[in-house]
Design goal:
The protein is α+β, with helices and mostly antiparallel strands and 79 residues long. It contains two helices and four strands.
């Protein structure tokens, strides 16, 4: 394989390796899911399995939803 082809192949691999299609979050929801949560208001931006975000009153409330995979502290960024 000549140098030019090797360089193109390496660039292509790096391009796809750096592509992240899953949303990033600080806290991961673990099993078993919470069944009872406090009513404190400490808003979090939850990331659902479909990639969409939603605002929940706290991390426990977010992770009690089986569609939520994780969350970030604070409100969701505006689109």
């Amino acid at each position: 394989m000549n140098f030019r082809r090797l360089l193109i192949l390496a660039a292509t691999v790096m391009m796809f390796a750096c592509t992240n299609t899953t949303p990033a979050y600080q806290h991961h929801c673990e099993e078993p899911r919470p069944e009872v949560c406090t009513r404190e208001y400490s808003p979090v931006c939850a990331v659902k399995k479909n990639g969409k975000e939603g605002l929940y009153s706290n991390g426990c409330s977010a992770c009690s939803n089986n569609d939520v995979t994780g969350y970030n502290e604070g409100a969701c960024p505006k689109p």
